[in-house]
Amino acid sequence: MLTTRRVDAYHALTVVAPGIAERFRPGHFVGVAVGGSQTAMLTRRAFSIHDVKPDYGGTVEFVFTVGGPGTAWLAERRARDTLDLVGPLGRPFPLPRDPVTCVMVGGEYGSATLFAVADALQGRGCRVDFVLGAVSADRVFGALRARRMGETTTLTTEDGSLGMRGKVTDVLPGVIADVRADAVYACGPMEMLRGVTAVAVEFDIPVQVAVEERMACGIGVCMTCVLPVIGDDGVTRMLRSCVEGPVFRGERVRFDDVGTIPFDALGAPGGGSRNVS
Amino acid sequence: MLTTRRVDAYHALTVVAPGIAERFRPGHFVGVAVGGSQTAMLTRRAFSIHDVKPDYGGTVEFVFTVGGPGTAWLAERRARDTLDLVGPLGRPFPLPRDPVTCVMVGGEYGSATLFAVADALQGRGCRVDFVLGAVSADRVFGALRARRMGETTTLTTEDGSLGMRGKVTDVLPGVIADVRADAVYACGPMEMLRGVTAVAVEFDIPVQVAVEERMACGIGVCMTCVLPVIGDDGVTRMLRSCVEGPVFRGERVRFDDVGTIPFDALGAPGGGSRNVS
Amino acid sequence: MSVDMRTYLGHVELVNPIITASGCAASGSELAQFFDLGRIGALTTRSVTMAPRAGRPTPRMAETPSGMLNAVGLQGPGVDAFLERELPWLSQRGVRTVVSIGGGTVAEYTALARRLTDAPGVTAVEVNLSCPNIEDRGRVFARDGAASAEVIASVRSVMRYDVPVVAKLSPDVVDVVSVARACVDGGADALSMINNPIGMCIDTEAMRPSLSAVTGGLSGPAIRPLAVRCVWQVHAALPSVPIIGMGGVLTGRDAFEMVLAGACVVAVGTALFHDPYACLRVLRELEELLAARGFHRLADAVGLAHRPPGASTRHRIDLEESSL
Amino acid sequence: MSVDMRTYLGHVELVNPIITASGCAASGSELAQFFDLGRIGALTTRSVTMAPRAGRPTPRMAETPSGMLNAVGLQGPGVDAFLERELPWLSQRGVRTVVSIGGGTVAEYTALARRLTDAPGVTAVEVNLSCPNIEDRGRVFARDGAASAEVIASVRSVMRYDVPVVAKLSPDVVDVVSVARACVDGGADALSMINNPIGMCIDTEAMRPSLSAVTGGLSGPAIRPLAVRCVWQVHAALPSVPIIGMGGVLTGRDAFEMVLAGACVVAVGTALFHDPYACLRVLRELEELLAARGFHRLADAVGLAHRPPGASTRHRIDLEESSL
Ligand SMILES: Cc1cc2nc3c(=O)[nH]c(=O)nc-3n(C[C@H](O)[C@H](O)[C@H](O)COP(=O)(O)OP(=O)(O)OC[C@H]3O[C@@H](n4cnc5c(N)ncnc54)[C@H](O)[C@@H]3O)c2cc1C
Ligand SMILES: Cc1cc2nc3c(=O)[nH]c(=O)nc-3n(C[C@H](O)[C@H](O)[C@H](O)COP(=O)(O)OP(=O)(O)OC[C@H]3O[C@@H](n4cnc5c(N)ncnc54)[C@H](O)[C@@H]3O)c2cc1C
Ligand SMILES: Cc1cc2nc3c(=O)[nH]c(=O)nc-3n(C[C@H](O)[C@H](O)[C@H](O)COP(=O)(O)O)c2cc1C
Ligand SMILES: Cc1cc2nc3c(=O)[nH]c(=O)nc-3n(C[C@H](O)[C@H](O)[C@H](O)COP(=O)(O)O)c2cc1C
Ligand code: FES
Ligand code: FES
Fold it and tell me: What is the pTM of this model?
């Protein structure tokens, strides 16, 4: 591990990981082992990759908030400690062929993953605008960088301590209209993704969302991270957010049914199969 | 935690623990929590107190070898890390009223606990001689200090790399005879304590031994650390080495029966009670 | 805001729900050096047997991931010494005492109960059913509903009417609810769970079992999910029966989990080996958690996790309050 | 010194004893990105069901001390898709495949076995008996020796003679040996243990069960002592029956513990979630441990911890060697 810094309410860790940095594409995440040897914490924690740099053969940075014991342990790491990472994991964000206008919508630490996407988009001549939000100013991640990169940047906080008082979905329609957006990229809490998707559907423009589900493995073998997604054939399947996601086309994700098995999903109970376990 | 140092094959940790230092008497041990928060290692590790000093309100030092994961974790601690100690625990060494001659017999890290005893004995005008042994030179603990404190110091190693080739029990009879010892104090592997006790019995002088049994609590509540000890009434009972020991009169400990329930022990199976669990 | 932590075992009131688990506090006097035993809900004794018992040979313990194995074998002085020395010591200090009993036959359990029935200072009797039934090829009572019920009925019949009889259940069964129901039908005033599931580990250096008894009882946080599941299932089936929940409780959060699952009393066992003050710490942490969530009474949280998906907590609490 | 790591499931030889545990390697292709599946003893598929299954709602997992709870609910594409896509993918790559099957009735298990019997690339069939028996009020087959034996007998009767049938046992029983014996009498060629004991945990913030399914299967090191105990007891009672040992194996040391207890094959499950390379690492570590202790053959270590107190290891090994 290389450096550790505080960014407002967040911790940022930079790790030397050439193998991961090399294969990185925007939207990828890493699985981080927590607790050290003899720990009682068995499962890796998933974190979106915020940034990769070429130094030291390749470094990876991720940003996190302290929630439970695993992130608390990570927050105590010091420079030169070693970290055990697996990655890059997940399906990255697809990028448009043409130089279109894209709105990047980030909530809380969700913003962290968007800057690499914006980089790539700008590399393809796309125009990029930012809409970042959180409950309070100290939880809005990357406002400065957004201002530097984006044509426009709109900030929202629920307590009004920064930018507009409210949610990103309150301002998103205005932004999409003003900049004549062709596409939306979003990462943040599921509730926000649902709202952002609704807005994009309203404007009939494509929206790519990076979702978050509880993950035990991150590599597609445990089947714990599923959510209901509509396929090209119109059939709803319980897809793994770690390997078939975390990036999905927003309108394909049945946000209202997350945490359930929709009756019309393939293999739903009663839908022909019996619930044998 | 204050300092950490290597002493040949051993690690020595000094911890600021005024409450323990204040109540310390030679023979006491501490229970040390290992692994930090969220660790899978549930039980404290027991270590004899090697030394206490008045600095910082009172410090405690213990000496250990790395065996399993708990001691491996302890060996990785750095100065200024915090340690969770319980103590002082156990029954300390009884001291003679009169200024007699005592031989201190230490095996491996067992020597560590003897110096505080020797101090106390010399404070009472006793003559102190040392017999320290181990498998090899780097595992003989405290030879220098013994040479400074003891009238005589005899060292043994099984590979002959320091002092006489052999075990402490090979040289002990000679030492007892030469110095006309009145009593023996011993700490080390159970096999050594058994041998030392045999020698002392041979010479018909009292011997105090500090034993070692697997301990889950160290405070007398779990009943896992028992061994067969003969009481004043001649009855053998399974006594807890953490609270009724670790110091016992050697001739009272039934070394040959450690790891068994002697048929004549109070409450032994068949001895009236049934084995209900 | 202070929380009313009183709770009941049958009709016996405990000042708070945190007690020690049997066999994890020896005779009580050992812990008394660390804190005033009167401050916890009750102290549970090790399982008392008729005759003195030397227990099992050592090694009696082995550490396992987030747990430990023990094979103590009910070492203890026997009921005579218990009644002469240990129980009086506790009652003189006003320590509420749950006396655990263990036997090899229904007759032995009954004889023990008879010895206890007139002894002063017995708050409740906990019947440790995880003992081999000598009359049934050493099959453990707790694994058989009928055998358990027979023991409980017999103990209940000789025990003083105002001393609750608690049946202690094992998780090593096909259906813990059916055993629980059998015990309640047999006259149990309360249930405690879980006793140690049986496990073992092997010393890969010696290439032999780590415990001299080969197998031993598994305890500690590793078994908490099994314990919470048992408490949950039994409370769902028998909501009116008081449950002493135990198994891997290290913190107030863990105790709260047991309470939410349906326990009105929570026992702390293995945690005492790591922290002699564990009971007081768990009690304080539990009270803080309850207060932080706006509970006025512990009782309002018991089994709360069973409420239907719709129902809110406040609602439930308001209901309780309005019924004052 | 290299160790002969070959082992046998019935008469089927495996190049080494380390396999994946059912449901912990999905369809196999996911792990294939990390290493060549041909290098492990075998890959066990998730439990295949007749119809496609969407499984349980999320949350499906919760972390517990040294373990985790899962309630996936056998999500899978159903036997048709399995035979069309997943099995051929494996057999084309020469991956030895243990196919796990799960059903709600004896008929369903039997129908599944019939579908598999002529499918190429089935190394063995593992019968996941931890499924609710629809015809017995949802009682899990594995908890009842007779029901388990009925399933095994029926599967055995339709399965090709040269494909071993493995009965997978649950620890949530009174006596694992009696269920094991019933399965062997029913025709099981081998036994695997343990499937997940049932546990639960509660989210103390939401004050509701952490899993949407309320209860789930406990896995990981926390349950290893239960697994080792089951393997030990069954090997002691049925020394000639091959045992696939699993439950919390993270390292070569853990696999060696299973082997010493009596397992000739060791399955790695939850460890794969933490380390995709776990199987290869465990295999290497196990081989190193065996070599360091002077074993020439894995087979010489199987059940070795059962040797009488007097007997030395060398002795045992020499015996084996002299019998070459
Ligand atoms: C694809 C993906 C990307 C993520 N990126 C970030 C990020 O960039 N920054 C950040 O702060 N957080 C991120 N998260 C959430 C992060 O994984 C959780 O906050 C973290 O696992 C919590 O661990 P804990 O020990 O603190 O909490 P605990 O609640 O103790 O975790 C217990 C268990 O639940 C799992 N878990 C708990 N919360 C979540 C969650 N929200 N999502 C997935 N698993 C969870 C943990 O992995 C662990 O197995 C991401 C999650 C996913 C799925
Ligand atoms: C009274 C007493 C004083 C001791 N003093 C010292 C000392 O000064 N220096 C030193 O190096 N060692 C000492 N020991 C031994 C020390 O406690 C063990 O070496 C240590 O617990 C091993 O922990 P581990 O995690 O490395 O090994 P592990 O084998 O992983 O320990 C697993 C479990 O077994 C217990 N255990 C293992 N070995 C022993 C043992 N020999 N005695 C008691 N419990 C054990 C541990 O406490 C733990 O609960 C003493 C033991 C006792 C009882
Ligand atoms: C060392 C030890 C001794 C025990 N002795 C008894 C006993 O005598 N009687 C009994 O009913 N339970 C006994 N138990 C089981 C505990 O009372 C408790 O049910 C179990 O350990 C689970 O709780 P815990 O994880 O908090 O320890 C013992 C447990 C341990 C660890
Ligand atoms: C996420 C998950 C899914 C599982 N699915 C199955 C399954 O489909 N069929 C089965 O027989 N066992 C299943 N198991 C049980 C494992 O095969 C194994 O028996 C158990 O987890 C113990 O091993 P472990 O501790 O190494 O994981 C599953 C376990 C987990 C953790
Ligand atoms: S986290 Fe395991 S399959 Fe997605
Ligand atoms: S270690 Fe627990 S009683 Fe001695």
Answer: 0.95
